[in-house]
Write a structure and sequence with these properties.
Blueprint lengths: L1 H24 L5 H17 L14 H8 L20 H32 L4 E3 L2 E5 L8 E3 L2 E4 L1 H6 L1 H13 L2 H14 L6 H17 L5 H10 L11 E2 L6 H9 L9 H18 L18 E9 L10 E4 L5 E3 L5 E8 L4 E5 L2 E5 L12 E3 L7 E4 L10 E2 L2 E4 L12 H11 L4 H5 L4 E9 L5 E8 L5 H10 L7 E3 L2 E13 L4
Parallel strand pairs: 2-4, 15-19
Antiparallel strand pairs: 1-2, 3-4, 3-5, 6-9, 6-13, 7-8, 7-10, 10-11, 12-13, 14-15, 16-17, 16-19, 18-19
Amino acid sequence: MELLLHFVKTGLYLLLFYAGYRFLLQGKTFFFLNRAYLLAALLLSVLLTFVRLPDVEPVVEASMLWELAGPDPGVAGDGQPAAPAGKISWEWVLVVVYGLGAGFAGLKLSRNLYRLVSYLKGQETLNIEGARIILREDYSGSSFSFFNWVVINRTDYEHHFDAVLRHEMVHVRQLHSLDVLLVEVFKVVFWCYPFLNWYKNSLQLLHEYLADSENAGQDAYADFLLVYAMDSPISGVTNRFFYPSFLKQRIVMMYKQKTSLWALGNYFLAALLIGVSVLTVASCDPKSTGSDNPAVDSDEMVSAAGVILDENGEALPGVNILLKGHNRGTTTNSEGRFDMGIVPKGSQLAISFAGYNGIESAPLEFRSNSVVVRLGEGDSKSVAAVTEIPAPETRDEIDGKPVFTAVEVQPEFPGGTVALFEYLAKTIRYPGAAARAKVEGRVFLQFVVTTEGEIRDVMILKGIGFGCDAEAVRAVKGMPAWKPGRQGEQLVNVRYTLPVNFELQE
């Protein structure tokens, strides 16, 4: 699932970025830069999951394959009978578990925000320097701020009003509440990542450093913090004046010498870490290397098909053709033809035959073109691979009628899905070349079922070579007329994708 991949990659980025902060930046007195780094790390962890390396080939996901295939509901996306009704896939289990977790976390955050805002709006306020000051009548509870609201309890008002207000006004001016709220939203969306608490604690500690740095009288302020102790805040999304767990770090940071400007080089190292992380995680994207998912992007894929003739222009059967750099190959049939289906753009074919010198073809660059190469140039026995067979064009109309990819009623093989696979099992003959090479896999074909039930425009989306592709095409072209698809009450042309499985028996 593409969504699951983005979710996992976001977690990897979050861990890598925080490791960069923990080992390179934490403890430095560049408080503003550290705050910016942590906030950027949160946002980039999501955005960078969409970065792909230029050479990553497009892959059609299973869900997209199902949409293109359009078999009836009794067939799964791989061409096999679908799982019985009531059987739940692991993907849906993950979706349900994630939804429950995110829903619970979202309700908890919403409840806290609702209670907090309801409390703040229900109090009388004083306007000081653009902030709305609320004076609590009770002595319990810590003073805190939330955006432009500052709540001060009676003890702080009577004994520490100036120091507390000056401290909280820094939080207000620098929008520290926005940082905390952003982390809380991340904790809802990515609720199963407990290390997001590291980001929250680090940001809140940086907020305290920034507020402490604007208080004059270092020694007096440190003494004040040592004797100050209050209860917990009313909400985890506020910036309260006093965090007991931060006390030691705040006092140490107040007396720490300013970090040398040479330490700014650590941010360069952190940026380097980000770059390496992007390349590492992006390189984990699945590539199409002969897997079960066919790549069908016409801008990146070309046809690998042609005819092999001898020096007299006669068809030469049994010529070995391999796709260089891939575990795919085929041999020419009795008419000298070969068809390896759709291959990555720029691929080369290695052509060899007993008694002839083998060569490699020029890179295949176009989906529909002609290529002439010669085996054993200068030898008395030369072979030419001529006229690459162009991949069939995907037509939008047949006989003046549009071709649909999704319709209300899908076309159906006579007798249904079970009869379709019985037909394929009886009709397909395992190619000898494939059997000798022990080649197995699935050939993905696409064809159009017309309004009369005819099979038209048969093409290979992804093949495995060694004669399997041609055999699958032969079987499909020989099918009896299908029951046409319908859109409303009208018969329509429907494009259909069918996987044909080739598997050797023990």
